[in-house]
Amino acid sequence: MEQPVIQVENLTRRFGEFVAVDSVSFEVQAGEIVGYVGPNGSGKTTTIRMLLGLLRPTSGRASVLGYDATRQFEAVRARSGYMSQKFAIYDDLTVWENLRFYAGVYGINDKGRILETLAHVGLTDQIHELTSGLATGWRQRLALGIAIVHSPRLLFLDEPTSGVDPNARRIFWDLLYDLAAKGVTILVTTHYMDEIEYCNRVGMMCAGKLLAMDTPRALKQRFVPGSVYEIYATPLLSGLSSLEKLPAIQRVSLAGDHLRVVLWPGADLAALRQALEADSIAVQAMLPGEPALEDVFMYLAKGQDGP
User: Fold this and answer.
1) Is the peptide bond before 288 cis (omega within 30 degrees of 0)?
2) Closest by Cα among 77, 89, 91, 65 to 150
3) What does CATH list as the number for 6-221?
4) SS3 at position 188
5) Assigned CATH class of 226-290
6) I need a labelling partner for 306 at 20 to 30 A (CA). Which of 140, 158, 179, 210 fits?
7) Measured in Å, how far apart are the chain's first and last C-alpha atoms?
8) Is-contact 174 271, C-beta < 8 A?
9) Which positions ≥6 away from 259 have C-beta within 8 Å?
10) Model confidence over 247-305: pLDDT tens digits?
11) 159 with 85: CB under 8 angstroms?
12) Separation between Cα atoms, residue 230 and residue 226, nearest integer Å
């Protein structure tokens, strides 16, 4: 079997008494897009910094592309691409000048290679524009171009779509799929739960711990043990308060013009309707819904084990 591109064993990082990453273990195989999701401060960025050798672990080990991430970090960085939360772009340079500069850092002076990278991320028409005038979505594409100009086998993306509009996010993920189809392995951190549906596998972080890692489908099957319903009722806020009191409810939230509930297994839907109507809440419809990865994360983060 082919060696994992990333292999992490009990990786831990402490800052004084604070444990930023707590005994994390996982593997990433070649060609995978693996999402690493969790709230700010959960340990996602610290993990990536250790994998790139930018931060020494307190304990544990990590192998990246067959190299020890702590002792052979130069080899890791030469073969990896990194796109940080704050795009490392020079605003007083043009798109072309930025990409040419970073290509030179990797020893690449082939103009054709740089132009090919610009075309790949869809920036050919912006080649002579100053980056200070680019919209966030275009700056995001330039940052991706900088990360892949040296044709890395592995790509680390740290919150790459933060602050980017939904359309730009979708286009960006199309670019990632294209890279993965060409054999690039991608580890991407995000706090957007909808984005991780695009990943082959998902790791969920909270308070420095890796709570679970699996395919989106497997995570939903394992950690959303009950059923999901979309409930249309009025008044809406009164319905929310009423449902929050019921032991049959794992989780209830507002979802636009209706309520979304996750029920514990065996919950009686008729009893749910009766409880709402007893509180003078009119129920228009109770429709089956689909589990979401946000349900998985909430279940894991709260450590719920039943009603």
Assistant:
1) no
2) 77
3) 3.40.50.300
4) strand
5) alpha beta
6) 210
7) 43
8) no
9) 230, 231, 232, 233, 236, 239, 240, 243, 252, 253
10) 999 889 999 899 999 999 989 999 999 999 999 999 999 999 999 999 999 889 886 44
11) yes
12) 14
